[in-house]
Specification:
single chain; six-stranded parallel sheet; globular; binds pantoate
């Protein structure tokens, strides 16, 4: 696996491959890779001639009180995992490479970013869309891979790809979970033993709501009430939001008619955890 820290370095490696007609797949990450990331990487390697991953903890998507400084990092371990999975190029830029002095162009996607994480974390999706578009422009992939765990992010990136006519096939792959149901996340590393023990309640609450949906419940309020009730079993869980939204545009729905999802974000002693479950008829 080659490693590049500069945009010029990435372009030097990829230009001849693109000219030779190779299909390029791309997995953007913030590193500290877990099995969820690796499922994206494995799919990317399987479906493309050339696979590129990026590791960049993007300051633009962290609010002033967020965990930018303590976000977990493991460049050596990440490099070994990516190389073993068959990635051809890993791009690991410094912050100044992506946001040089004088940088002043931002990408904003409307509507799908209004609620949930967009409402709780001002500037979050602007930071994500800006860096993802920049990474797309640097790598110029034919295909890109995102995880369903960050569903609002995936829907936002899909909107941006469509709106800006980017020629990128987007794949959104299922959330990978620990055996007890907790969605894999780099932030799980922050959880102490007690918080780790209650964290699976998120998935339990969501699967309980999905079971009620399958039994015929269509009221968003009823499903949210169920999720809230299960989470209330652990007083340490502070709910930020529990939302039932339309899968296409992330707008809240009162009664589910079509593909939807229940998404939630909670705080567990300073650690933000998100999860969701898709609700589909049939
Ligand atoms: O999902 C993430 O890890 C990040 O939001 C992404 C897509 C790499 C952009 O920084």
């Amino acid at each position: 696996m080659q490693r590049a820290t500069t945009i010029a370095g990435v372009r030097e490696v990829l230009k001849p491959l693109r000219a030779a007609g190779k299909r390029i797949g791309f997995v953007p990450t913030m590193g500290y890779l877990h099995a969820g990331h690796m499922s994206l990487v494995e799919r990317c390697v399987a479906e493309n001639d050339v696979s590129v991953a990026s590791i960049f903890v993007n300051p633009a998507q962290f609010g002033p009180n967020m965990d930018l400084d303590r976000y977990p990092r493991d460049p050596e371990g990440d490099g070994a995992k990516l190389a073993a999975a068959g990635v051809d190029l890993c791009f690991e830029p410094a912050v100044e490479e992506i946001y040089p002095e004088g940088f002043g162009t931002w990408v904003e996607v409307d509507k799908v970013t209004e609620g949930m994480d967009g409402a709780s974390r001002p500037g979050y999706f602007r930071g994500i869309c800006t860096v993802v578009l920049k990474l797309f422009e640097i790598v110029r992939p034919d295909a890109a891979y995102f995880g369903e765990k960050d569903l609002q992010q995936a829907v936002t990136v899909r909107r941006m790809i469509e709106d800006l006519h980017l020629e990128i096939d987007l794949s959104v792959l299922p959330t990978v979970r620990e055996p007890d149901g907790l969605a894999m996340s780099s932030r799980n590393a922050y959880l102490n033993d007690e918080d780790r023990a209650v964290a699976p309640l998120l998935h339990e609450a969501l699967t309980g709501a999905a079971a009620r949906f399958r039994e015929g419940e269509r009221s968003a309020d009823a499903l949210v009430a169920h999720v809230r009730e299960v989470l209330a079993r652990a007083p340490a869980i502070a709910v930020d939001y529990i939302s039932v939204v339309d899968l296409r545009d992330m707008q809240p729905v009162e009664s589910i008619d079509g593909d939807a999802c229940i998404a939630l974000a909670v705080d567990l002693h300073g650690t933000r955890l998100i999860d969701n479950i898709i609700l589909r008829d049939g």
